[in-house]
Amino acid sequence: MYNEIARSQAARWLSAAPTSLLGLPLHRSRPRRSSRARPRRVLQLRRLIVRLYSSPIVDLQEWSALVCNCDFFFNDPQNESVAEQLRERVRFFKEQNRDIDFYIVPEPVWLDKKFPELAKQVKRPCVALISTDKTWITFMKLRLDRVLRIDLKDMPDSEVLAVGGEVPEFKPVGKWTAPYARYTPGWWKVFEPKH
Question: Which family would the database say this protein is a member of (predicted)?
Answer without folding.
Answer: Belongs to the ycf54 family.
